[in-house]
Amino acid sequence: MSITIHYIDEMFNMYARMLHVKPVEEANHTAEMVLEEFSKGLAVFKVMADMYQQIIVVSNSGSNCCGANGILSAFYWLACLDHKLATVLTIVVNKTTKMEDGVRSKPFYQYKDIQHMLPLFMLIDACKKLVEYCKLTNLQSQLNKTLNQENATRWNSLLHCFLSIEEMYDELVPLLQMKDKLSKLNDISWVLLKELITFLAPFEQVTLALEKFKRPTLHKVVWWRHVIMGHLRLLLSDVMDEDGNVTTAKDSDSIKAIKGIMMPLLYSKFVLDDIHVMASLLDLIMKSCLIRLSVERNQIEQAKDKLKDVMIKYAPLDGEEEDVPLARSPVRKKARSSVSMYD
Fold this sequence. Notes:
A hairpin with a 5-residue loop joins strand 1 (2-8) and strand 2. This protein has helices at residues 31-43, 63-66, 81-93, 114-136, 157-167, 169-178, 190-210, 221-231, 253-269, 274-281, 297-314, and strands at residues 2-8, 14-21, 56-59, 76-79, 99-100, 103-104, 239-240, 246-247. The protein has 343 residues and is mainly alpha-helical.
């Protein structure tokens, strides 16, 4: 079990530290066992039960992390939204099966629109097989850049797999031709590949935006949820820009199918907690546009009430002034765009 702590000092400087890493030998990783090991990890640093109310625990949504008898019983718990995104993508693009009366179903049993999903799954399989072949035959060493294999435990690895194939396509063709293996490209539709890259790219953008180590991200959850939900809306016609140029933006049948599956699934899993709305209310820009970002009015009012309670709780009582060090005037910095989670 690994524990990473994120905290601020009295000057509101943000820190991220790896606090604890320990192998867990228990065979059954139950909710109770995870809570016990987590508490032991905190106790090493003298963080005891009387301090738990100051801690928010963020983890994946496995039952052993958010079970009622586990971490949820002692801590304020939030689901890791990057895990949620990865789970939804995995559910949709994996060949999911199920057992009924001892008989395993066919892959993709859950899809009604299977005829439009099949080209997508064929493309994924073809890309994986191409990367695997290049690794086994050492064709990788003859490419300027390595092809990336999809890995279920790494976020956005399927996107990186597609991008690496697209980038190395011109180099792959002659290499495969020499080995009389050009057929490895037959099942890869380059039009669909580009569409899938365009479809998956915003998920990586959201992941990187929400997992930054040195900047707060809690107030951005509302915005990025709005962005990703908007991305899953169907594009039913081409787009004309201000100069009259027409851009082909209409979704193919395969992309329509995958969006139709993902929209309700993500809507049920990417759920706003009151603390996300509370954080947005403290942001000068975000607080004025929550309704437009599809936040329910009653949740906004509820978050306002909770925010008032928090402020009253931590404000000085009876007119007493706390000894708070004076903060220096912030240095104005040039705005920058970053795709790194370490900012």
